[in-house]
Each structure stands twice: as C-alpha cells, then as structure tokens.
Amino acid sequence: MDHEHVHQPSGSPTPPHPGPHGGGHHQEGGHGPAGATWAMAAQATLHCLTGCAIGEVLGMVIGTAAGLNNATTVVISIALAFVFGYALTMRGVLRAGLPVRQALKVALAADTVSIAVMELIDNGFMVAVPGAIDAGLADALFWVSLAGSLVLAFVVTTPVNRWMIGRGKGHAVVHAFH
C-alpha cells in the first residue's frame, strides 16, 4: 500500500488537496481531485476505527478492571483512542519518509474529526445502554455493547469521512503519502 516515492513539496506540512494521483486542486461539486467514493470513505473509516477500537477497548478494559467510575473510564478510552488512531496514521506516513513533526501534523489533519465522531458515538452508546458500562469484563453485555458501539461508530462516521475526503480534508491528506 505504501509507495517508494513521496510527491511532497519541501517545507509544506501537508499537501494541498492530495488524492491518489498526487496533489491537485479542489474540484467543484465537492468530490475533490479523485472523487470521494463510498469505498474510499469506508476504507478511511476502517483505518481510523482500528486505532479507535484498540484504544477504546483498552480504555474500557482498564477502567472496568480497575473499578474506575464511568467518567474516568470514558476519558481513558477517548484518550487512548486518539493516541492509537494517530499512531497508526503516523506509522504509515513515517514510512513514506516524513519527519516526525510533519507526520504528526498529517495525522492530526487526517484523523481528528473522524476519531472525535467515533468517540462521541461509541462512548455515548456505551453510556446509553443500561448496565453496559457497569458490566464486568466477564459479562456478555459489556462485550456485546462495546462491539455494537464500534459498529454504530463506523456507520455514522463513514458519511462524515466521505464528505471530508470529497473536500480534500481528513484522510485525503494521507493519500499523497501512500
């Protein structure tokens, strides 16, 4: 998936409206340089969901196992989701040859909105399902609710990512480095 060469102007923290064919200008109609397909949006959302899920599950497990209150558990889950989400994006961008500081800027631009939407949805779901966040790690309610929260987060976030990619934002900024 990663390519050998990076078409990045020196000194520029992020490419201006990149697409799979390199840089470009935003086209009218909100489809960006290469168009924002549902497949592109789903792939971006799955990538983001991977990092979010690692952090979310780890945070919920830590909070539940330690007997922390719900608010603390949710804060830990959100923090870890952002850390792992950004880390996965940075891993690929660093492999493309960007310095750490620029890779962090790309990850922040690519993932912040997507992760925020996912975290709002999946944590809101966990809190809304009666008993889910209070269930123990051995309880099916905990794991079924957590899985359901991640599925719902994917469904809600995919259209958001499609909209952002179509405008050269979100995961569109990462495509120049793959």
Task: Characterise the protein shown here.
- With 178 residues, this protein is mainly α.
- The protein has helices spanning 38-65, 70-95, 100-128, 140-165, 172-175.
- Helix 1 packs antiparallel against helix 4 (140-165) and helix 2 (70-95) packs antiparallel against helix 3 (100-128).
- The longest helix is centred in the middle third of the chain and has 29 residues, at 100-128.
- It is globular, with a radius of gyration of 17 Å.
- The model is unreliable at 1-33 (pLDDT under 50).
What descriptive keywords fit this protein?
single chain, 178 residues, globular, disordered N terminus
Q: Quick recap of the structure?
A:
The chain is mainly alpha-helical and 178 residues long. The protein contains 5 helices and no strands.
- Average pLDDT figure: 82
User: Tally the helices: what do you get?
Assistant: 5
Structural class by sheet pairing and helices = mainly alpha
- Number of DSSP strand runs: 0
**Beta-strand proportion:** under 5%
Span between N and C termini? 6 Å
Order of helices and strands: HHHHH
Main beta-sheet annotation: none
> Percent of residues in helical segments?
55-70%
| Residue windows where pLDDT falls under 50 for at least 5 positions | 1-33
